[in-house]
Amino acid sequence: MSTKNALSRFARLLVLVPFLQTHQGIAVADAAVMMGISERDLVADLYLLWMCGLPGYTHLELIDLEFEHGHISIQNADTLAKPLSLTADEAIALSMGLSLLGALPNAGLNEDLRSAQAKIQAGVLRASELAQLTKQVAVVPVEPSSEMAGYLGVIEKAMIGETQVEIEYYVATRDEMTKRTIEPMLIRLIDGISYVEAWCHLAEDRRLFRLDRIYGVRPLKTRRSHLPLSLPDFERSGALVDYQISLAPSGRWILERYGAIALENRKGPNAPAVLAVGDRNWLLRLALSAGGDLQVTSDLELANEIRETARLALANYQA
Amino acid sequence: MSAGKTERLLNLTMALLATRRFMTKAEIFDRVAGYTGAPDANDRMFERDKDDLRELGVPLVIGGSNQLLDLEDGYRIDAKAYSLPAISFSAGEASVITLAAQIWREFSFSKPARSALLKLRASGTELDNSELFEAHLSAMEPAFPNVWEAVKERRRIEFDYRRRDGFVSHREIEPWGILSWHGAWYLVGMDLERKASRVFRLSRLTSEVIFTSIPAFFLPPEGLDLRGEIEKLNNSAEQIAVLNVAKETCIALRRRAHASSTVDAKWDQIEITFDDLDAFTKEILWLAQNVVVIKPKELRSQVIDSLILVAQ
To answer: Is there a single domain that holds both residue B74 and residue B121?
Structure first.
């Protein structure tokens, strides 16, 4: 164990001791989950705490722990009854998270955000350090329009009331407006863009809908029929085909946004990657919108089609 | 040995929190468990321990234990400053805080966010997961950790930067702040060669970020406005675009248009407001040959330039 590990373990113990005092009798397994460590590490921590206390170090001064029967109780640790105040780093991390959530247009939430923000600031040790840092970092998500906020309000109500809604949704890949009944389950804000995750009756599957492509919402009285189970990230579903692509440095965002997998980097500025694609037409349009930052390398026919489409569009300007 | 260090730090912290008067070094070595070496070794150990406590933010106070009797300085921990104040959160506040902490994934802010949550839990706050919302913000830019470090520590940095047009140049910057704008990270700072403030998109830093000064080397300007700096750059004031759109196509643009007229059998003309030039360019490119930008010039030329790049 290095010095750095010893220090981070020490920091953990400073939290563990007050945590056990506010959660007397907690099961070892539960405590480990809450602390984010393995049961084995937690038990090792408990044995170490047993050896600690105030000068004198008789049973009167040592921390008294009981955990033989799978539940932890702690006595004689009043000196460490409170955790250490928040550091500026910790407060900034929470505070930026709260500002990001401000992009979710929900009046009730906004009030909680403001008051939580103020309380976090009250819990910081060096308030001046936080004040300085607060000026040096900011999160500005895409601000939803008032229409979007209105739609989101209806969708939230449906989530709470466990009912369905009908939406008008623009499918960009096909340049087509669709009407569909959905059962909204979760509102996700990913890298500044809001999505509604829902069971879609048209697709008969779970889908992620971009909030800025919803053009109308109508609440329905019908109860929802599917359970909101948590699934891993997805954006496009259906049968996926892997395409090899090459990304210019300014197109690296595509890796992140669409979960493309970067391949081993050869020489040169362009990075090869693999992108799983459900709809060939989607990749064609993505390549157009990337403005030359994305080249399709595994399908020459599609690569030609992309160039042809760009030439067609350019011809409009020469007319 | 290291378990010994953890144990010693904990015993030291408890002793210095509990003491009402300042404890001298001699008293500490005599009474606190773990200082069992020769005087020299104890001294060195104690110096390192003090640094470690300070690094974690433990408010260690140095003072005379008794001005009349003792000449030697003593130590204690300010228990009031040490303790996280009792904060009571409503259920709503608790749930937004949990959400806020979970935003950060695999990234410089996720560790402090997690430890902050733990501290709040340890002080008795009940925190639950929201079932309705989930938010994530990523920062996969390799430059991110060093740039954030430099911002916090106020150190100068240098790196290679690729402009949007592909031109790469070497920059030395006083980093004033970082900003996540619509999902992408930017650095705002003073460009030392150009002697003016500049905005850099972190994904376009093409080299390692190297520190070129000691910490606390400069102060960011008083009225620093990160948002303002980037808005200047993005020119994000609302603008009106005039577009020709092919019949039966561009359904979403038509829905947002506030004026529309017929041009000929093939085209309609619409007027539409936009504020983010880059984002709107992408939306128009997505629609390929079914849309033609008439105005403004900026948008028109950006769309044409992009199409030329794709057509090559």
So the answer is: no
